[in-house]
Design brief:
Organism: Volvox africanus
Pfam family, one: HIT
Active site: 150
Strand order of the largest sheet: 6-7-8-10-9
GO molecular function: adenylylsulfatase activity
Domain HIT: 54-164
Length: 164
């Protein structure tokens, strides 16, 4: 990503895309706050046609993960970049068109409920009885970088609001 100042505004470039930056009087502010946001935007166009995701490969045992729960429909494993003392992901074992929450259909209701049930079940197993947060990043503006629905479950400390 490149940031270029043009007068009192700026543009950034990702894979040949050009977008205006947010402008504050007298200075330009980066339009994207992090490489994570850039990765999310870059991954978004592949969401429905992408080959197996890293999560598909974890389910297939092609990539190792610290699995803490597994049943016929769901898998929970520790996040490789934890944002809290306890941070794990809950994923459906089959994508079934659920690349993002906004793609859910009535046929997904039982699976979505099961994923939330697994999130609380594992949270209790991880001693998060005093509270935890469940986050679903959806699409590029939600900073989703893997297009296989996943729930982030975080706890083990006082979480603040707003999250960011």
């Amino acid at each position: 990503m490149a940031l270029r100042l043009i007068g009192r505004s700026a543009t950034y470039h990702i894979s040949g895309l050009r977008r205006p930056a947010v402008t504050v009087p007298g200075r330009a502010v980066r339009a994207m706050a992090s490489a994570e946001e850039a990765a999310a935007k870059a991954a978004a166009h592949l969401a429905d046609t992408e080959p197996p995701t890293i999560f598909d490969k974890i389910v297939a045992k092609e990539i190792p993960a610290n699995v803490i729960y597994e049943d016929d429909e769901a898998l929970a494993f520790r996040d490789i970049s934890p944002q809290a003392p306890v941070h794990f992901l809950v994923i459906p074992k089959k994508r079934s068109g659920l690349t993002r929450l906004s793609k859910a259909t009535p046929e997904h209701k039982a699976l979505l409920g099961h994923l939330l049930y697994v999130a609380q079940l594992v949270a209790m197993k991880e001693n998060l009885g005093d509270g935890f947060r469940v986050v679903v990043n959806d699409g590029p503006n939600g900073c989703q970088s893997v297009y296989h629905l996943h729930l982030h479950v975080m706890g083990g400390r006082q979480l603040t609001w707003p999250p960011g």
